[in-house]
């Protein structure tokens, strides 16, 4: 029998594969009282499908991932739109030609758009770091940096941007386009009956047995032929080399007594607000409800046992510590470390599925 620690997306994909392809029994455990890990969702008292651990929009270019997940759900097409509250106006994010036209005087905006097309072409994502390197676009880069990136990033990570890994600031793009969608991936949709239902369908084989509110430390591992561990890698080793730091989030849910609160599922607040974004959940499934549910999102320090470890904090030092744990993990011959916590890495859902399918093929499936 196989043991899977964690009933999140990565653990459940591997469990499904083991049951289906190897015809073997799998025991999944999770310390939480529900399956799905961070993609868990539920219908609240307003009839709105709420994502328990923050807004999740599925998007991928991987047909294999799309086809795999489509066995377990019908989809509702959904294109994620994000607005930013900048200088008193709601504007599309990422910063694109529509944003430029909304925020700048017409002639200036037209010239800027013309120069951006000439320099970078159309439908290109150009990072603010790239813009800063070009004299012509320094003002624009500075504007986007201050109004979109700086306040948000300081709140998100409780750090100055220069203290952060370059990958964080380089991720902030402007888009040389009038396409307001947040992602341009081929496949974009939300599971019609929610992510939790998708997961439940995935693990419904009689060979799969789930124990909730069960911690890895409560388990006698001797009865299992292999363990797939999707929890925190430092916790597995009792933090023997030190703790890998995380950033956490707090969501304040509010019922608003009208059908709609904002135009898009997500609205970002850069400066002057202590929350980073407001999510209005009904947009994801285009639900028709009398009241609406919103979540204000506050970044927080991660405190063990008090809140959730959401984001690994990117820095050379933290990565080096992770690499040390990874070396220890290599000696655990019967354990596979998989997922965002075990790999100390931010993964989108499609990347998690891809990686879990790959791990099954390479490390578990024996013909
Ligand atoms: C705020 C936020 C928004 C996101 N939005 C998107 C998005 O829009 N689109 C997208 O593609 N991705 C998004 N993601 C990423 C997505 O949430 C992850 O890719 C996915 O949830 C990772 O799955 P996982 O199985 O690796 O981890 P998890 O979902 O964290 O599952 C791990 C499970 O293991 C359990 N566990 C850990 N240790 C133990 C233990 N010792 N004993 C028992 N159980 C244990 C945990 O309780 C947890 O349920 C977002 C992430 C965050 C934080």
Structure, explained:
The protein has 367 residues and is an alpha/beta fold. The chain folds into 2 domains: 2-79 and 188-243 and 312-364, 3-Layer(aba) Sandwich (Rossmann fold), CATH 3.40.50; 91-175, no CATH class. Helix content is 32%, strand content 23%. It has helices at residues 9-22, 63-70, 97-103, 106-120, 128-132, 138-157, 166-170, 195-202, 233-236, 316-330, 349-364, and strands at residues 2-5, 26-29, 41-43, 49-51, 58-60, 75-77, 82-86, 89-93, 95-96, 125-127, 173-175, 187-191, 208-211, 226-229, 246-256, 266-269, 277-280, 292-301, 311-312, 335-337. Strand 1 (2-5), helix 1 (9-22) and strand 2 (26-29) form a beta-alpha-beta unit. The protein is globular and about 70 Å long. Bound molecules: flavin-adenine dinucleotide. Flavin-adenine dinucleotide binds at residues 5-11, 29-32, 37-39, 54-58, 215-216, 230-231, 249, 310, 339-341, 347-350, 352. Flavin-adenine dinucleotide is lined by residues 5-11, 29-32, 37-39, 54-58, 215-216, 230-231, 249, 310, 339-341, 347-350, 352.
